[in-house]
Amino acid sequence: MVVVKQKGRWAMTLRLLVKSLLGPTSKIGVALASLAVGAAVVSALTSLYLDISIKMSEELRAFGANFMVAPLAGEAEAGAPPTVRGMATERLEAAIASVPADRLVGASPYLYGLVRLDLGNAVMVGVDFPGLRRLSPYWQVEGSWIGVAFDDRNAMIGRRLAESMALKVGDGVTLLNRAEGQQTRVTIKGIIDAGDQEDDQIFVALPLAQRLLGLAGRADFAMLSVVAQGPEADALAATMTREFPDVSARPIRKISQSDGQILGKIDGLMALVAATILVITTLCVNATLTAMVARRTPEIGLQKALGADNRAIVAQVLAETTLICLVGVVLGLVIGYGLAQVLGQAVFNAWVTFRPVVIPLTLGVSLVAALIAAVLPVRGAVRVAPARVLRGE
User: Domain check: are 28 and 52 in the same one?
Assistant: First the structure.
């Protein structure tokens, strides 16, 4: 008998729930739209937030190296003569190779030396040109980049040095190291406009610089562009130092801290936008549910007169709210994923990766907002007096 009575009560509740949601005068569409918009914004911003560090770090890597690997100061490399500077390029390359491939944007060893050009002295820099191009994509180059690391017939020269030496793209220039008695002639393939000290230097392939300077297989240090900031960069440096005790690996603090500050401000802005949208969504849903309860006051009074207690009324209102929230979240997740892709393409020129954790997070936040919005309407429904309703008051 009790089971039949419970089944009848649940059947009646279900009919009232369906009627309230699908009734011709229902304002449920407003609440549904509000929750869908709120869920869309939350899911889109959450997806962006989860990808923001990687995407933004990749964008910031266009502004130069943020990591340095050099010989450990004060300690001679095993097997190297005490007069030989720097360290073996094989060690630097092994240290670079220890960085996860998905984190390394570009890297190049550097070897500096003073050479004589046709019209005066200049600082020569031996580099890995493909790695240097990935390290410095912001450089403006007249002519073209050198495409391979072993090209010993071409060079790239800084803008100010080229102007002082009256050199242009296609000209030949002699590089002479009097100390080592080495010289070679190269062709200027590109003129660099970097806006810094590089504009006064000439860049050649590392093997050529090693030969001219008499430092075969050596390099002064390596510069890296790594997708990492803050604690991640510090952890990477610590790991590399443990694996290679003879090197000093460290983030370039000024650049890494700037990356972290920019990312922190963007994260804060996204959190503020999401919180604002949730507050507006909560207020909108609250107004809609309050209007629904007021419209259904006679119905609620009749339910109470027929024996429904406050618990049943509360359960009905919360069930309606939960169902509205679930439908709104489903719509919001679909819209939000599309919105995240639009924002990802517009801001980072990249697709945002779908992360399953967005679903429960969006659902949880939306459900909390909806239940908070239902507090006042529930209190209003509980306070309905059956006697006054039956008297038509």
Answer: yes
Q: Which of 130-144, 185-199, 378-392 is least confident?
A: 378-392
CA-based end-to-end distance of the chain = 36
* 139 and 195 belong to one structural domain: yes
State the sign of the Cα–Cα–Cα–Cα dihedral 16, 18, 24, 27: positive
- Which of 237, 315, 327 is closest to 13 using CA atoms? 315
Does 256 map to a domain? Answer: no
Q: Do 205 and 280 fall within a single domain?
A: no
365-375: pLDDT as tens digits? 888 888 888 88
Domain coverage including residue 229? 66-251
Question: In this structure, are 241 and 274 located in the same domain?
Answer: no
State the SS3 of 174-193: EEEECCCCEEEEEEEEEEEE
The DSSP secondary structure of 204-225, one letter per residue, reads EEHHHHHHHHT-TTEESEEEEE
Domain count for the chain:
2
> 263-296, pLDDT tens digit by residue?
566 667 767 777 777 788 788 878 877 877 777 7
Examine the pLDDT at 83 and tell me if it is beyond 60.
Answer: no
Q: Which residues contact 359 (CB under 8 A, 6 or more apart)?
A: 43, 333
- Residue 222 and residue 270 share a domain: no
- Give the C-alpha distances (Å, rounded to integers) separating 322 from 189, 212, 237, 242, 256: 67, 76, 49, 53, 45
> Using only C-alpha atoms, what is the Rg of the chain?
34
Among 202, 223, 251, residue at a domain's last position? 251
Residues 123 and 247 in one domain: yes
Same domain (yes/no): 122, 225: yes
Q: Of 178, 161, 175, nearest to 205 (Cα)?
A: 175
At residue 142, does pLDDT exceed 90? yes
39 to 21, 63, 341: CA distances (angstroms): 20, 35, 15
Which amino acid does the sequence have at 202? I
